[in-house]
Amino acid sequence: MKYENIKDTMNALREFQFKQAAIRHAMGVLEYDGETVAPKDSADGRARTMGYLSELSYKMTTDPELFELVYSLDGRKDELDTEEKRMVEIIKKDCDLMTKIPMEEYVQFSELCSKAGNVWKEAKNTSDFALFAPYLEKIVEFDKKLAAYINPEMKPYNALLDMYEDGLTMDTLDAFFGKLRTGIVPLIEAISKKPQLDDSFTKTNFPIPAQREMSLEVMKTMGLNMDRIILGEVEHPFTTGFNLCDERITTHFHEDDMLSNLFSVLHEGGHAIYDMGSKPEYDYTVLCGGYAMSIHESQSRFYENIIGRSKAFAGPLLEICRKYFPLQFEGVTAEMFWKAANKAQPSLIRTEADELTYSLHVMVRYEIEKMLIGGTLQVKDVPETWNRLYKEYLGVDVPDDRQGCLQDSHWSGGSLGYFPSYALGSAYGAQFLSIMEKDVPDMWEKVAGGDLSPVTGWLHDKIHVYGSLYKPGELMDQICGGFDPQYYIDYLTKKYTELYEL
Ligand code: ZN
Question: Are 451 and 321 in contact (CB under 8 A)?
Answer without folding.
Answer: no
